[in-house]
Fold each of these.
Amino acid sequence: MRTAPLRAVRMLSRRRRLLAVLLAAASTGCIGLAIRPTPSTEVIAAARDLPGGRLAASDVTVIKLPAESVPDGALSPGAQLTGRILTAPARRGEPLTDFRLLGPTLVDAYGAGTLATPVRITDAGSAALLRAGDVIDVLAATPRWDDALPPRTTTVAQAVTVITTPNSAAPSDSTEPGALVVLATTPDQAAHLAEASAGSRLTITIHGHHD
């Protein structure tokens, strides 16, 4: 009479041991997945907080990012960056992309036919207010034949976007008056700006967010 209950107890014990083995195997598999290294990619990043401007070799470093976190256009180790223009400030550790550097890729982002046009703004103080991405109008104040008359003021470029700010557009040892900015323009706007630069004082107005 005791044989059947004893057999049932032994069968239940075997099943429990089997279940324990299976759970242990599953746990080991999960641990293996957890410690498996995530694929990473090396990219170039800012070695310190950068204000923008010409890059030196010491301004950049190589970091590793998870492959899925690498931004589009990220620069790979070996890219020649010394002397290139960083168009806006970057935080330490921020990956650098092709859109952050002055060059064909950046200019193309503003649309087909866009030119990167350097313009020297007469009032360096007003130019210092600019940031990359600002939209501005450029005005030319041209002296009249009679010095007693006020200069004639005309708008020579409307709603153009700032690509680089004065600090990043010009070397720090520049002795020329005013401040150099680089604007995204059409060929016609570039021609008008070049003509106005020859004999006029160039000033700017900055568009608001809702212009």
Amino acid sequence: MSDVHVPPSVTSPDLPEVREESDGPVRRHLHGIPDIRGFFRTNTAPVYFFGPTAFNLLGIDRWVRNFHYVAYYDSWDGAHPRVFSPRNKPLVEFDSGEAINNYLLRDPEVQAFIGARPGRPKVAMVFFNEETERICEELGYELILPPDTLRRRLDSKIVTTELGNEAGAASVPNVLVEVDSWHTLVRVATDAGLGTDLVVQTPYGDSGKTTFFLTSETDWDRYGAEITGQHSKVMKRINNEAIAVEAVLTRQGTIVGPFMTDLTGYPELTPYPGGWCGNDLFPEAVTPEHQAKAVDLVRRLGDRLGGEGYRGFFEVDVLIDVDSDEVYLGELNPRISGVSSLTNVTAGAYADLPLFLFHLLEYMDVDYDLDVEEINERWRELGGADAWSQLIMKEPRHTVERIVSAPRTGTYRLEPDGSMRFMRESHDWHKLEDPDECFFMRVYGAGDYRFKGADLGVLVARDRMQTPDGLTDRAGRYIEGIRALYVSEPLAGEPPVVARPAVK
């Protein structure tokens, strides 16, 4: 069979090419960014992002026609035209993001909402499991993510390290070993030339809760029970700067997004000492030399993931040794992540496409051509061309209170006296320009409970929130201003429902 092409002179520059064969139509073939952009603007396939909130991919509906969010928490109280949340939500004790997504998939209101739209639904989310896959198969939904078994295997810090080594994307000097005592730890570390100032990571879990810093037997006595019996990564402790970056493994190669710094452990934002609580994206986040090394590292890892059958979105934590200038592989998160919110709003995203759209393209019924080298070069120049930041605001106090009133989701202005003035209802943060204006997305609202670790909301602004000395003055005023808008009343005991994971 041979392709029949429309002559270039009569091909519309705004529409993707549709190839036909003698026995009927075949898949579309898109040539470059303009075709792909036009394809998504005229998309007819229903695409849904499921999550506790719409946070991770908020704003993608600006780019993709027929894109909707299905969220447990409706931060807009019904005012966002692309966010659907079931009205009937009995109190359920969720213990994970996966549990919330599976609940939403089985909810009759959600199924009716999706069933009212023609076409097989394509479903994306941050966290899922085998039950999610079974539910989607039962309902006839297409889960546009790599298989759960593969994702779980790649989620292991041990597997990530091994694959990185094979790809030439080295980790901080380490040894992969199981240890059962301080003396064993010292022996294997000394034999590997790592010294005794060590970092130990267990294979699975949030790095803020499964990364342990040990310099003495006293430290082992404190953390040893959580390390013993697990094949762990024992690393030399370095003076490092942590950088987060997202990428997409496409059939054309790995596209690397912008680099941003992490905010971790600030007691004003989180009760967890190593807990993630935000990000800064700005031109000086990494030097050109470190950026070049990091891009090469991420692309090497992406190519190796392709050998495992992976495709689509992933996030990498890169560690820069500030003493030696070496760039190391930190961790892999094989999923959409908490930094997607900033990745998808940068100058690089607007020059080409939001990074998530390259993931989505892998799961659409089209073929396409991309110049990955050209795109990576453009993102390298533009990815951090402007400043963006986000603060993940959890309840840091140990008291338990019922929320009586909470700030509305929308755009606020930071006034000279430190107060926050509501400016307007907004669907996302894409139109922010002034550093003294921010977008706040409320998570917990009136009737919910404030307790240690409760998700209050996310604040996004066009300015840095962190310097080498800590949080900026503006960040502190933003935090105090938003917290002042919450009114709550104390409770005598624990809240009737445990914490529901809302922002990841």
